Amino acid sequence: MFLDIFIMWLVLYYAIRLVRSNTKTIQIFKGILLVIIIDGIAKFLGLKTVQYLTDMFINWGFLAIIIIFQPEIRSLLERLGKTNVFSRITTLTGNEKENLVDQIVTATMLLSKDQTGALICIEQNHPLDDFIATGTKLNSDVTAELLTSIFVTSTPLHDGAVIIQGDKIACASAYFPPTNLELPGRYGARHRAAIGISEITDAVTIVVSEETGAVSITEGGKIISVNRRQLRDYLLRVICGEETEVHGSGRKLNNEKPREVIIDDTQELKKEGKTGNTGVLSRLAIKKQEAKEQKPEKIEAEEVIPAEQPEVIISDEDENMKKLDEEAAEIKLPHKKARPAPSYPENDSVKRFEKERQHEEELREKEEAIRQEQLAQKKAAEEAERRRKAAEEAERQRKAAEETERKRKAAEEAKRLEAEARVQEPVEAAPRMTPEQVRAAREAAYQKFSSARKPEVKKESESSQNQDSQFDTTKLDLGELMGMNEDLDKTFEVIDSIDSKKKSSKTSDDSSQQEGGSRK
Ligand SMILES: Nc1ncnc2c1ncn2[C@@H]1O[C@H](COP(=O)(O)OP(=O)(O)OP(=O)(O)O)[C@@H](O)[C@H]1O
């Protein structure tokens, strides 16, 4: 019986812790409570339909809870499986815890002074192994030197968060899901990631702004700006469970961890013109303002001195702080280099959207490149065709010019030959006989000459005289005949030369005509 009650108590204890460690779970739990209350009221007032609905919800609620809390149940079982029921931090001794706090505070203040952005997450009861898996595992001692070195912007590990498990730096470059809360513009991706992790786990996260050097703490979905002293007090309380005093303020911090630390972002939102729809933080800030008026002794977010403001030195006798100052003075941060683009993984939906956008952009660029290439090819083809035609036209014109020239020369040559022929004409015109006729005449002349010498052949010469009276050689003496014979020889030579020239000019004409024909 006692064991039974003990087990039930354990189950309830862890269930409540699980619900409390996650703001989303709290909301769902509140919803379930509301349904149970409505069911009670319906029963009391006898509202049968409402009761039927709420009964249905409660009857099936077990299944619904399993479905709704599936990730949380899984994480609880995982946690049980790892037998890490007690957080690693609880296993440290008092001195180790204090040293851990000092190292974290020193590193944070150095980073703040140097305006080097940082995100340091300290694991509490909720294991952060899933987030450690997104980063680079280190498993090294927590020292101010190592912490500051990690966040120096020229190192590959500076992007993302450092997770501290117990007294070890479990990893660097871890990715946290950012919050979806509406926040003032001064909070960027780093602050969103810090609030995001505090919404889904009970971890405490320290953020150092790269822009202003301001130090903030996030826990339970809330963010608060702190100075060095406040940071130390806060960490001592969270890690060592110490109750500390804010020196000089005359006020004590709550015994419990300040789970609802909030920042007054109402002023900021008003400045940005977002007065209509103020976020959760601003509404909480207003509530807190009201509470403050009632309980002035409680420390409020609005009262926290922002880290960028000159720090108020409250006590000269704080030896711990002096020691921290001395330690910090020994650590020198390297010269900051230009900040490279973040390489940590982005929020899933944003990443997907960005990927799709890039893909579309690439497709558009490819299509445009193909279109441009086609256009260029078309232009090149057109240009080539234009050049080919121009070359053809130039060739045609060249040939035409050559042809004209050739014809001109041929005509000139013909003219020249004609002129030459005309010069030879008187010699050619004299006989006005064909060579056969001349040969016949010559023969006849010879016959006549012979018959004059021999009377027996006289009759034959008479008959030939009748044929051609022009060549009446009977009355010619030998001298005359010989002279005539020489004349005839000259005439034949002239005729032969004219014939050969005519022939040669005719063959050149023919060949040119043939060339013209084949070109056509
Ligand atoms: N989801 C995330 N998880 C872990 N680290 C992140 C995440 N988002 C951003 N960071 C870190 O924050 C850096 C970008 O910070 P950003 O300047 O956008 O934030 P910020 O809140 O304006 O801080 P700061 O005041 O330092 O500029 C990144 O380089 C990365 O190191």
TrEMBL record:
Catalysis performed (reactions):
2 ATP = 3',3'-c-di-AMP + 2 diphosphate
Keyword Transmembrane helix: yes or no? yes
E.C. number(s) listed in UniProt: 2.7.7.85
Basic and acidic residues composition bias: residue spans: 320-333, 348-371, 379-425, 453-462, 499-509
Record carries keyword Glycoprotein? no
**SUPFAM superfamilies noted in UniProt:** YojJ-like
Chain intervals with Polar residues compositional bias? 463-473
UniProt domain DAC: residue ranges: 70-230
Which molecular function term from Gene Ontology is one that the record holds? adenylate cyclase activity
Region (Disordered) residue spans: 310-478, 499-520
**Record Pfam families:** CdaA_N (PF19293), DAC (PF02457)
Domain of life assignment: Bacteria
> What keywords would UniProt list here?
ATP-binding, Cell membrane, Membrane, Nucleotide-binding, Nucleotidyltransferase, Transferase, Transmembrane, Transmembrane helix
Instruction: Indicate the transmembrane segments per the record.
Output: 6-21, 28-46
EC class name: transferase
Q: Which GO terms describe its biological process?
A: cAMP biosynthetic process
Role summary = Catalyzes the condensation of 2 ATP molecules into cyclic di-AMP (c-di-AMP), a second messenger used to regulate differing processes in different bacteria.
Q: Which family does it belong to?
A: Belongs to the adenylate cyclase family. DacA/CdaA subfamily.
Q: Which PANTHER family match?
A: DIADENYLATE CYCLASE
Describe, as the record does, how this protein assembles with itself and its partners.
Answer: Probably a homodimer.
Q: What is this protein called?
A: Diadenylate cyclase
Q: Specify the species.
A: Stecheria intestinalis
